[in-house]
Amino acid sequence: MKLSPVQKRIHEAAIRLFVEKRVEEVNVSELAQIAGVARGTIYNNLNSVETLFEDVASQLSAEMNDRAARSTDPHASPAVRLATGIRLYIRRAHEEPHWGAFIVRYGASNETLQQMWSGPPMHDVLSGLSSEQYSFRQEQLPSVMAMIGGGVLGATMLVLQGHKTWRDAGSDMAEFVLRALGVPVDEARGIATQDLPLLAA
C-alpha cells in the first residue's frame, strides 16, 4: 500500500513514539503533535488507532523489502544481492536512527516485522542454495533466516550506539553471513566490500 504524504508523516511520527514508549502508551494527541497535523487528520488517515502499530510494522517491512529489491542488480549472484540487502538495511538505520531504533526494539519479537526476512532475503538465500553457492541443508532454512535477521539487528544496534560505523558494521555482517553460508573467505570479503548502491526511492 502506497502511503499519502500525510499518512507517511503520521507513520514516521508513530515510529518515533513507539521507540520512546510502550505501544499502549501512544495516544492520538501526541501523535498529532509530532506529525504536525490535527487530531481529526489522524482519524481520517488511519484504519484505526488500535491497529496503528501493526499497520506501521507491516508498511515498514513491505516498503524496505521493495526498496532493497529495486536497489540491487536482478542479474547479480544471490550472494551479491544478499550482501547488498544486509548493508542497505544497516546504512538506512544510520541515516534514519528512529527507523533503526524501531526495528532493533521490535524486530526480534514482532511477527509482522519478521516478514522483512521472508521476502527478498529469503529468495536470495534459496537461490544461492539451489545454485550451490551456499552450503546448508534445506531444513536449516529457518535457522539461516534467524541468523541473518539477528545479525542485522545486532549490527544495527552497534551502529546506533556508536560502536561501529555503518560501513564497517554492514560489511562485517555481510561477510560473516556469506561465510556462514559456505562462501569462501576471500570471495565473501570481496562481495561485502563492493560499492553500495543508493537505496531506491
TrEMBL record:
Organism: Pseudomonas kribbensis
GO terms for MF: DNA binding
Stored PROSITE patterns: HTH_TETR_2
DNA-binding region per Swiss-Prot/TrEMBL record: 27-46
The protein, known as: TetR/AcrR family transcriptional regulator
Superkingdom of origin: Bacteria
Gene3D superfamilies, alphabetized: Tetracycline Repressor, domain 2
Every HTH tetR-type domain range: 4-64
Keywords, comma-separated and alphabetical: DNA-binding
tRNA-binding as UniProt keyword: no
